[in-house]
């Protein structure tokens, strides 16, 4: 990745117990203090890539670092970083570091947390990621078009002591709507689609290409980091012939478990880390199928076993549990309770709820939260729907009154998912994006410890920009 140019290398870690300052915040990470930030340059610009894998069918895209997906950015937990973002697009942009608990001014929401980066200009983001895990980055301006044209990349924060695996793989999954000439179909922000499932495309890429094969070796143990960067496509993945173990969701470690019914739900913006023991037969291929939409089942890629003897006879018995991140535990007995009602969109029978309409144009509101429709990607003067006292624990009950699925994302915090329709969620998994099913009520809890104005929105981008968005203030 030559476009990733760390011009200042990180200072060497101190050996043993000599470091003090940063290790107080991140126990177990001894390091020198103060630490010079690692510097990374990132440009957003138009480009041409081959998504379908043949050089004579190139697609005009917008991309980071001249590639699709953008370069994997790998940092270490507790290591400060300075990211210089240059805008070479024909319009304003920003970058949101999705899932990172960072200072509000670094959150990348135009108008709300920073002025937009104008064409030809640059903005420097600086933060120290407190949590290890799988995160991602994407624009928060003209999101439908900018994300839909390819601006997205993985942001990996490495644990000081990762679980031992043979390979650490990242699959950035992206959904495109391509015409037969491989060009991106125009018409972002179609009111009809916006009131339904959003702009679901017709071509899914793995790390920027329509994938036939993912070469694997029998017996190896792989950590597979999945990132769904789609505008709207929800995925339900099955690994034929394999039993993946989920070890982290949205970057946050969880109790290692197998997906329910072997089907891994991955909505837009969600990440899942899997441990995959390659127990298939050398020389064989096993499909990775996505069957979320009944009528649109397809396979994403195939685990293609090399015709080689297995690396080992049995899976290693080393533990799969990742070290936990320094998240504040919400105090449920003293929490503030708030309700969010998610409303709008087309009804199953073709009727209309809410204030928008299928004749709606562009960002016309068709969705709302508690009766308010905040549209777009962020702008100045967005009044907060909720104000939470800093340090207070909060339980948010999100009631989906619509006929559609909504992956709800909160900026600046990670939350525990407490319950679904009143039934406790096992281990109260941490997340930053929670998929709320049609008519479902999901309760989440977190400590409002990060001051500032934070977005809370659906990550089906059409839903976000047409009203399913609000601001939560921590003060
Ligand atoms: Cu990944 Cu406000 O979004
Ligand atoms: Cu939604």
Structure notes:
The chain is mostly beta strands. Helices cover 4% and strands 39% of the residues. It is built from four helices and 33 strands. Strands 20, 21, 24, 26, 27, 28 and 30 form a seven-stranded mixed β-sheet that branches. It starts with 20 loop residues before the first helix and ends with a strand. The structure holds CU-O-CU linkage and copper (II) ion (CU). Residues 406, 458, 460, 463, 468 line the site of copper (II) ion. This is Multicopper oxidase family protein.
Number of helices: 4
Oligomer: single chain
Q: Which CATH architecture of the largest domain would you pick?
A: Sandwich
Largest sheet report:
7 strands, mixed
Radius of gyration: 22 Å
> In CATH, what is the homologous superfamily of the largest domain?
Cupredoxins -  blue copper proteins
Structural class: mainly beta
Query: In CATH terms, what is the fold-level topology of the largest domain?
Result: Immunoglobulin-like
Number of domains: 3
Shape: globular
- The overall pLDDT, averaged over residues, is 90
Total DSSP E strands:
33
Low-confidence stretches: 1-27, 349-363
Strand fraction band? 35-45%
Instruction: Measure the end-to-end span.
Output: 40 Å
**Can you tell me the CATH class of the largest domain?**
Mainly Beta
Task: Please give the share of residues in helix.
Answer: under 10%
Question: Which ions and ligands are bound to the chains?
Answer: CU-O-CU linkage, copper (II) ion
Domain Plastocyanin-like: 57-161, 169-289, 381-474
Region (Disordered): 308-330
Keywords: Metal-binding, Oxidoreductase
Protein name: Multicopper oxidase family protein
């Amino acid at each position: 990745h030559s476009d990733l140019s760390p011009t200042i290398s990180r200072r060497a870690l101190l050996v043993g117990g000599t470091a003090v300052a940063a290790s107080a915040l991140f126990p177990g990470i001894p390091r020198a203090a103060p630490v010079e930030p690692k510097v990374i340059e990132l440009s957003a610009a138009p480009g041409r890539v081959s998504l379908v894998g043949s050089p004579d069918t190139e697609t005009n895209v917008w991309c980071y670092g001249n590639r699709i997906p953008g370069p994997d950015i790998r940092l270490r937990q507790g290591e400060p970083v300075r990211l210089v973002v240059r805008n070479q697009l024909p319009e304003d942009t920003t970058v949101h570091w999705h899932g990172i608990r960072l200072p509000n001014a670094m959150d990348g929401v135009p108008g709300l947390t920073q002025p937009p980066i104008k064409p030809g200009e640059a903005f420097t983001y600086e933060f120290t990621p407190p949590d290890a895990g799988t995160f991602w980055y994407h624009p928060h301006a003209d999101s439908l078009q900018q994300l839909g044209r390819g601006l997205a990349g993985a942001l990996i924060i490495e644990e000081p002591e990762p679980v031992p695996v043979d390979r650490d793989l990242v699959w950035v999954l992206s959904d495109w709507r391509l015409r037969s000439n491989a060009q991106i179909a125009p018409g972002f922000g179609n009111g009809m689609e916006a009131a339904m499932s959003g702009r679901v495309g017709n071509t899914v890429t793995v790390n920027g290409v329509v994938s036939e094969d993912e070469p694997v070796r029998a017996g190896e143990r792989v950590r597979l980091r999945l990132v769904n960067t789609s505008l709207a496509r929800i995925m339900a993945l099955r690994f034929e012939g394999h039993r993946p173990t989920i070890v982290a969701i949205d970057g946050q470690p969880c109790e290692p478990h197998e997906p329910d019914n072997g089907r891994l739900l991955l909505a837009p913006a969600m990440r899942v880390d899997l441990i995959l023991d390659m127990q298939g037969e050398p020389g064989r291929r096993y499909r990775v199928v996505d069957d979320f939409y009944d009528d649109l089942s397809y396979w994403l890629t195939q685990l293609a076993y090399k015709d080689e003897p297995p690396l080992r006879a049995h899976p290693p018995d080393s533990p799969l549990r990742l070290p936990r991140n320094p998240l504040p535990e919400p105090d449920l007995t003293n929490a503030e309770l708030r309700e969010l009602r998610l409303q709008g969109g087309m009804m199953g029978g073709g009727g209309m709820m809410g204030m928008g309409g299928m004749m709606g144009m562009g960002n016309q509101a068709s969705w709302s939260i508690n009766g308010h429709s905040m549209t777009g990607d962020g702008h100045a003067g967005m009044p907060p729907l909720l104000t939470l006292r800093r340090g207070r624990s909060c339980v948010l009950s999100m009631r989906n009154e619509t006929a559609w699925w909504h992956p709800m994302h909160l900026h600046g915090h990670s939350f525990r998912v407490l319950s679904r329709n009143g039934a406790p969620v096992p281990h109260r998994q941490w997340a930053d994006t929670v998929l709320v099913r049609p008519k479902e009520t999901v309760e989440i809890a977190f400590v409002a410890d990060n001051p500032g104005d934070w977005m809370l929105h659906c990550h089906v981008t059409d839903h976000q920009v047409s009203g399913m968005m609000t601001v939560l203030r921590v003060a």
